[in-house]
Amino acid sequence: MAHQSAEESRERLVALTLLLQNASASRPLTQEAIVAELMVDEFPTSSRGPRKVRAYTGSAGAVRQKFERDKARIRDLGWQIETVVLSDGAVGYWIDPTSATAPPLAFSDAEERVVRLALRVCGFGAAGAFSLFNDGPAVDGGLEFTNFVTPVIRALNARRVLTFDYQSATRKTRVVEPLELRVFEGALYLIARPRATQEIKGYRLSRMVSMPLVTADTFDADEAARDAAAAWRPQYAKTPAPLDAVVSTNADFARLIERQFPGVRGVTRPDGRVDVAIRFDSPRGALRFVLDAAERVRVEQPKSLRRDLRAWLRGVNRGDVPDLAGVTFSGPTANDVLGQTLQLLRAVHLSPNGLRVSDLAARFSLEEDLVRRIMDRLVTFEPMRGVYGFPAHVVKECDDWDHEATDDSLYRAEYYDRDGFHELAPLLWRDVVELNVALREASRLYDDPAIESAIAVIEAAVGARVRVTTADEAMLDAIVTAAANHEQIKIEYSTADASESEARIIEPREVRVLNGHTYVRAYCTSREGWRTFRVDRIGAVLARSPAPLTRPLDDHPQWLTEVGESGDEVIVVIDPSLRWLFEPLPHAQWSALGDGRFAVRFRVRDRSFLDHLMVRAGEGAVVATPDYADAGRDLAVRIARQ
What we know:
The chain is an alpha+beta fold. 33% of the residues lie in helices and 25% in strands.
């Protein structure tokens, strides 16, 4: 019964969405007209040719409730349903297709090639742009999945005021004037000016807790406001207070610091330690640097930084743990039946020669039977045909009609001749943002003119101010070259918690990007196995030579986020202000608690990873899992002793 309900819901939602996109402000559809005329296939199908039945049946109250619920689900995917009051007082509805979909992007063959490459580098997942351009199943990792991008882009382009509920220290409704969409370390931020102020603030899209609403109010932004938005960074302060600090460390880590802060040079002491003077944008920036470095640095000055550090360390993993009995966790937002169906439909529209059942199943990691059920219903999908037509419909070609239920059928789009209309289905705004981010990340790895021209195609079509901040990783070229040339290289490497670097001999195979950092998967001859290395922790390439021809197969194909799929399960209770630190964890699951805090559940394979995470969190985070109740405390004591 649940299966039948999902099928009925899927077709009704798709029918209503496409129907409202083919209405307009001058030809809106009323609820009465939709209820009276919208037809879908009967389920379960009782004959080879499914019988058409009304999409909305039942009492007036039940129909109204179902109709309102469907409109809400459509809005939750980013489409804005407009309302029009007609001359007789009735209310009509329509969807502006450009509110959810970007203008068509005309990529050349070379540009399409680099688009596919870039999406593999960043791994945006089957729910996003990856599966529209690549033949195989999606790789892991990537940008935060969110439908909130759609109304944000719409508001940016139209210079409209945006309102949404936002969870920071407390949950509040925000009314803002959007200026830019920015990406920092794989996280999406809306840079905006709160209404009736001159402040510039950043809002992380993952902390929006309601679909942003584009209002009718417009605004203007002068050059000073745009410049301030361009200068905004996470942990931005309205009145920056630079802080000059001196830390001492070993020679290996000093070299990493010098690459992280261009222009900084250490001074070696007689005992071999190195003093490094660094100017930070703010005291908080200096504190975060010292916490990340942990035991590898000692703060020499100023005293205020040492005092702040001691106070921070006293609060590590301290606090009360609430009763978590009965608490349920939810994972990352996933497409519902509407989003899933529209994604399959757009993939077929974007493939000139069509796609087979097996193609779609592999791309979107779906069972073939489910693909057949979805696509077969789109084949017979013609709601209110003749009144509100559609630019194209899906045609099914079967190699063996006698065994249609198991045939690897081909689905392709066939276009109606409607005033010369012949255009591939455009991408969602979210897909375009993912393409932009992926191409900019790939431009750090590969020197290919097609990458820059593909970015130009996107930015010329999009119009909205979407900016991507990428990292500068000194060893990147050497690693990418070694992977491309199948070389074996000797590197100087510092792990996350090692006090000194060590020499490792590796054979790079694949380079990928996650949360703004670049990682390389390599066979490590020093450890005789496959390992993952973060490029910004490679101090130097000491030697290189051709790699042996064969190595054992890597048994971790999803190596980039394997930390989230194995190891011990841990639950940490955190204040809302610390969500930014835990949100990038692969496969993290969340639950809002009654006292305003959050519980986040994830897996750890290495105790030291959790120790360092809790030190970075400081006061406001406490581990609820008994086996890890003291995580981070010993490390905090060791840092304090320095």
